[in-house]
User: What shape does this take?
Amino acid sequence: MIDSIPSDLATLDTNADGNIDRIYVGDTGGTVWRVDMPEGNTDVRASWFATPLANLGRDDIAPDDGGNDRRFFHRPDFVPSADDTGAFDAIIIGSGNRADPKETTASNWLYMLKDRNVVTGSFAGTPYNHADYDAASNEFGLGDITDTCINDADCIYEDLLNGWKLQLEQNGEKALAPPLTAFGTIFFTTFLPEGSAADAGSDCAPSEGAGRLYAIKLNNGAPVNNYNAGDGGDENLTKADRFSPLASGGIPAEVVPIGNFILPPDLDPESTGGRAFWKTFWYEKDVDNL
Assistant: This one.
């Protein structure tokens, strides 16, 4: 570990015994770390360990330039999942330099990493890298879905064996808040430092930038909604349907879940597309009154 870790941690209790046994976190060098804390050994120095799950920034990518300067300033999301190959833990994280939100040099992405070592205490394995996955050579890259997977039929499963990456294409666009996954849909916000013509400000006031809300499928990054109303309807989805402009300016906060809705930073609720939640009550037998 040579880079700082400014974000919160994604902490997991994978066996539901009340103890944290695994952690995921990204650093400012573009590395996503997995920390295993298996139980049963009183000497934690001998049993706890950290391994890189993915190397996605300039520390491990040539050339070492500003374009590859991807940094992680927020905690990843964690979703137990499975595909045709078997079970995996999905780690979703987006890059962006929150310490310099107006920079426009780095090429930022949202990543979905498939950690197939789902048992705590096992090493993460060979770290994934930012390069495209090559099925012929079994490289440990990630499938680029930026211009593909607009519809499920457009996806090549073999390209997504390790996960996928989605480029944030607007100049300077970056993810500066944690993603949220609900009912198979990843919701996340991004910041556009240059904004757009509608929010560029006046000669006397600088632009505060703009934001986007994305809603994409966990398994392949395809758009969930027809956000771009001018593309001809749900049967003619384009990659612009992955996101919708936020009405609020500035750096957007994270999406907040409220029942079967999500609340974006501009306070315009949106359905998750899943079932409604309900309250759950419990009591301790022979102790609590009904």
